[in-house]
Amino acid sequence: MVIKSVNLLQEGQALAITWSNGKTARFHAIWLRDNALDPETRSASNGQRLVTLLDCPENTRIESARAEEQSLALRFLPDGKEVSFPAAWLAEHNYDRIENRPKGWTGEAISRWGSDLASAIPTVDLAAAKNDRRALAGWLGAIRRCGFAVMTGLKPESGALLEVAALFGYVRETNYGRWFEVRSEVNPVNLAYTGLGLQAHSDNPYRDPVPTLQLLACLENSAEGGDSKVVDGFKALEILQKEAPEHFDLLACYPARFEYAGSDGIRLRAKRPMVELGPDRELLGLRFNNRSAAPFTDIPFDDMATYYAAYRHLAEIIERPEGEVTFKMKPGDLFIVDNTRVLHARKGFSGTGSRWLQGCYADKDDLLSTLAAIEEELPEAAE
C-alpha cells in the first residue's frame, strides 16, 4: 500500500490521504495521536497503550505530515511529538467510510447454512488437531464460520471432552460443574433419564452472559434413534426477516425473561432480547429456550399478541426440516456449537440400550484468540 499524497484539513485538526489506487481516507489529529505506535505510547511487548487520553493535549493538531511511500510521518502540536504510521496500518484501520448495512447483518467470516451442511459437516480427528496446527486452525475456523463442528477419535471415557476444550481455551465452570452428564435410558427409573426428544434450543439463556460455546461428547449410544440435531439460528432469523420483518423487529426490540431455579441455592435470571443486535445493527446472538422462558413482562399490552405471533413464527421456522442437520453420534465423537447462534436438539429414541453424553461449556473469545494466533503464526492456515 503506497501513499500518493497527503493534505492537512481544518487547520491541522485532520488530514486526507490519497492512495496510489486513487482511494482516499481522512483521519482526525486526535485519533492519530491517541493511536500512535511509538514505544512511548504503546508497549512493544504486548501492544497495550501506555498513556491515557488525558495525556494527549485537548487541542492536538497536526503541524506537518509527510508521505514516505509506505509510511506517513507526522509532527503534532502543541507537544511537538513525532510519530510514523505504516501505510498498510492506516489502510487497515480506515474509518472514513459510509456503511448503511441492513438490520441483522453478519460479517464475512459468518456463513449461514441449512440442511445442505449435512453433506459437508466440518470434522477433524482429535489426533490431527493435537499434532497439526493447520488442522486445528481449520477446525476452529469452521466453528467461527458455521458455529458448529464435529471431532472424532476421543477416548469414550469420563472427562475426555476437557482435552478438546484445552486445545483452544478453558472450561467455563458453572453450577453444573466442570462438566455435566446427559444420560438417557430407554426404560428409565427416573424421568430425568427419559428418551423423549428435545426441541432445538440454546443453553443457559438465564445466564448473563450465556456460555458462548457448548461441547458434547458421546461415551455410549446403543439406543435406536436419539440422533443429534443442530439448526443455524442465524439462518432461521434470516428467513424470519424475509417472511415477516416486523416479527424480527419485535423479537429484537423487547427483552424476554429466562430463569432457572432447579437446584437449592440457585436462582438464575436474565432479561435479554431473544434476538440481540449490536449498536450498528449487527446480528450478535439468539436466545431460544422454551423450557427456561419466564413470563414475559416487558412487552406492552398492545404488542403482546403480535410478539407471541413472532415467537411462534420463529419456533416454526426452527422446526422446518430444510433447516436442520442430523447425525448419529458414536462413542468417541464430539460436537461443538456456538451457543449464541446454533441451536441443538435430540431426536427421541426407543427400544433397548442407552445414550450417555457429557457436556461442558467454554468461551468463544478463547477460541477466536487461539485461531487468530495460529493464523498470524501460519498465514497459509487462514481461511
CATH superfamily of the largest domain: Clavaminate synthase-like
Give the C-level CATH assignment of the largest domain: Alpha Beta
N- to C-terminal distance: 22 Å
Which radius of gyration do the C-alpha atoms yield? 25 Å
Low-confidence stretches: none
Count of β-strands: 22
| Structural class by secondary-structure content | alpha+beta
Shape descriptor = globular
Number of domains: 2
Q: Roughly what fraction of the amino acids lie in strands?
A: 25-35%
What is the residue-averaged pLDDT?
A: 93
CATH topology of the largest domain: Double-stranded beta-helix
Helix content estimate: 10-25%
GO molecular function: iron ion binding; trimethyllysine dioxygenase activity
Pfam family, one: TauD
EC number: 1.14.11.8
Enzyme class: oxidoreductase
